[in-house]
Amino acid sequence: MLRRSLAGSRKIVMSFEGVVNVLKPPGMTSSDVVVDLRKIFGVKRVGHTGTLDPAAAGVLPICIGRATRLFDYLVDKQKVYIAEFRFGIATDTIDAFGTVVESAECDIYAEALRKVLPEFLGEIDQIPPIYSSLSVNGVKLYKLARKGEVTAPIEERKRKVTIYELELLEQLERNSFLIKVRCSKGTYIRTLCMDIGKRLGVPAYMPFLLRTMSGSFDLQNSYTIAELREKKERGELAETIVPMDAAAAHIPALRLDGLSARKKRLLINGASIPYEGELEQGKIQRLYIEDEFIGLGIKDGGGLHVSVWLGNDADK
Prior knowledge:
Distance between the termini: 20 Å
Number of helices: 8
Number of strands: 21
Order of helices and strands: EEEHEEHEEEHEEEHEEHEEHEHEHEEEE
Strand content: 35-45%
Helix content: 10-25%
Radius of gyration: 23 Å
Largest sheet: 10 strands, mixed
CATH architecture of the largest domain: 2-Layer Sandwich
Structural class: alpha+beta
CATH superfamily of the largest domain: Pseudouridine synthase
CATH class of the largest domain: Alpha Beta
Shape: elongated
């Protein structure tokens, strides 16, 4: 990909940089996906926009190169999941990978489930499961759980999450239902399943989870690891990458044409420049200079400055 440099008319050949929408399979960790993409794209700077449980499948946006600087602006978006909630059984991990720790004879009907689902809409409290990637004193919680050093959810880790949509799609079999969840970042669908089970007075676990959307990235436009390897063999990897400015398209754009060379230099080196246009204080913007995306900026007082530089590092 060729991009025009702010420093002059020279052409700079850009390496792979942007966001790849990966379809993660069950049984693979998010870190495993990062390792594979480093090898496939031949770059070191690779990171995911928030973990997806090893047992889960679905959309996992992966940032490559300078796009890793967009992490905070991509991870904060809404997620959509399709999950199986099964009642009458509980496992220690609250998913199909765990050991059964409780069972109860029950008959949960769709009508009863539909009746309680609205109670979990809006902002709710969640305590992360002990088998999670959350860190405690620098150690992953699931590692402590495996050692028996943590045996129950940590109350102090309670967090606020938001459930925007909770829909019963269909009943799969006795006590087993397919549920659609649209939620905020940081929501544990396993915990939601367990808490709904508690509300119904029965144990519950989540045998299946598929993330169908993460922000603007959806299942339809995702690539498996195998497909990415095939694209590499055919020399078509570039077409799998969403450009950085497109990945941040949910952020309003601000074009700064006609800037003097001095103001350009100040801006790209992190200094503020005067800006008198109509712009909401503290609201992040995608910044363009002469059609080149340079990063994210913010107005603070009477000045405008780049808060996340995403242009050519050679220009700084």
